[in-house]
Amino acid sequence: MFVRNDDISREFFDTMVDLWDSHPNQTEVYLKVKKVLPGIPGYLCDQGSAIYMLMTQKDRWLPRVYLEERYHINRYWKDEKDNLDNYMEERETWRNDGNHPPFIMHFCGCALCYMKYSEDFDECQRQHDRAFNFANNQIIRDLGFMHRNLSSSEVVPIIR
What we know:
Main location: Golgi
Structural class: mainly alpha
GO molecular function, one term: glycosyltransferase activity
Strand content: 5-15%
Oligomer: single chain
Subcellular location: Golgi apparatus membrane
Membrane topology: Single-pass type II membrane protein
Number of strands: 4
Keywords: Glycosyltransferase, Transferase
Order of helices and strands: HHHHEHHEHHEE
Number of domains: 2
């Protein structure tokens, strides 16, 4: 969820807090939200609460909110690691259709985050480097350079 720091966003979050505080028993609030969003996780979360408010207070919030649903804003590295090379080849055809690069690829919870060696550590580090090089290519390509491949930190000129 991307949020602009303005009065509308603050009002939205204040309303969300009011929703959470509307009943002393959070289970009651969760059940209220679950009636509208049967697929939410087994706990009350910010994203579920936001969607609940957008669905139940449409006239108030929908004119002020853009809800992106054409592509993934955020994906876990293990779900994307095998797609990075394909994204590089198909850059000109990115259509924001859910089959193209996410805005954010996160590594939360991986071995690197905990700074401890595990069986995933080497793979996690390798994929983190590849993801960094992929993101770096998006910037340096406009300057006429790119990484030789996603597994290499070597930068080479683009021959056009």
